[in-house]
Predict the structure.
Amino acid sequence: MADREQPSKAQRLVEGLSDRRERHKERGRIYRIAVLTAGVVVLLAGLAMTVLPGPAVVVIPIGLSLLALEFVWAETLLEKVAKGADFALSRRPPRKAWAAAAVVLVAAVATIVIVNGG
């Protein structure tokens, strides 16, 4: 029997969006406009953070999740972002590789300092 992959946390959150969207549609118009406005502001702030200092990779999905309550295109884009995040996390090097890279970096800096008469 083949093991099936468990969906990631990001995929589970996106899958639960349709239920949240149905509950959201029952809310009042002012509340829905406030969520829409907040989603636009957060998404624009996240996009600005791609060129300015800030955690764009965290803020953009938050804005998309707010907009996904109203728009299917935002949910589709959020699903793509979640799949991309899962792919990136599955491809990251193991911790030992990071430790080895840090040791090499420290050794390189120490060598430069010693060679320059540091």
